[in-house]
Amino acid sequence: MNLDFSATIPQIPFILEGLAITLKIVIVSAIIGLILGIVLSLCKISTFRPLIWIADFYTSVFRGTPLVLQLMIVYFGLPQLLGFQIDQFWAAVVALSLNSAAYVSEIIRAGINAIDKGQKEAAVALGVPYGKMMKDLLLPQAFKNISPAIVNELITLTKESAIVTVIGLGDVMRRAYQAGAATYNYLEPLIIAGLIYYVLVLILTFIGKAVERKLKSND
């Protein structure tokens, strides 16, 4: 094996320029995925069966099909129905957030169901409105319990964001591939890209553990 980073080092700034796109995709997708995940989780624990069926079917579809397929349907398939091309960035955000929401909804649902049922029954007996009970009582406790799982999902989302290279979006992975094509040495730029993703995961892991310690200290 012969590794030669001499041609790759000048390409590092070019690869790092894709970091801004990667972070933007992850942040926007995580926010939308979290919001949609909360909505889906509330549907899953509702007493209205059609909502439960819809939420469960949604989760089954997005967890049961490859993310790359979902991304390609959004970017290449939907324009055929809509009659206009979707921007690469927003196609990536739509696919990643819809996929993430399916997993987040299961995490939140499990967190809510883990809360002592007596608290919910007491709130109902006191006449607390459902929305207020969720906002002030159940969801805050659920998020405290599921924070490690949410961080893990964010880490997964960060790594999966590399898949946007298949639609030509200039993220870290795409730029690493372009750097390899320019020098005819693909391994070295891909190693650089791997290190960038690894550092991102380490940072998220550190933040997640810090948040978990903070929440435990507040108990």
Automatic annotation (TrEMBL):
Domain ABC transmembrane type-1, which positions?
Answer: 19-208
Asked if the Swiss-Prot or TrEMBL record annotates the protein with the keyword Transport, the reply is yes
One term under GO cellular component: ATP-binding cassette (ABC) transporter complex
Task: Give an example GO molecular function.
Answer: transmembrane transporter activity
Tell me where in or outside the cell this protein is found: Cell membrane
Source organism, top-level taxon = Bacteria
**GO process annotations (BP):** amino acid transport
How would you describe this protein's topology in the membrane?
A: Multi-pass membrane protein
Q: Return the Gene3D superfamilies for the record.
A: MetI-like
Keywords carried by this UniProt record:
Amino-acid transport, Cell membrane, Membrane, Transmembrane, Transmembrane helix, Transport
Q: Which Pfam families match?
A: BPD_transp_1
Q: Which residues cross the membrane?
A: 20-43, 55-78, 190-211
Q: Which family does it belong to?
A: Belongs to the binding-protein-dependent transport system permease family. HisMQ subfamily.
Q: What is this protein called?
A: Binding-protein-dependent transport system inner membrane component
Q: Which organism is it from?
A: Bacillus inaquosorum KCTC 13429
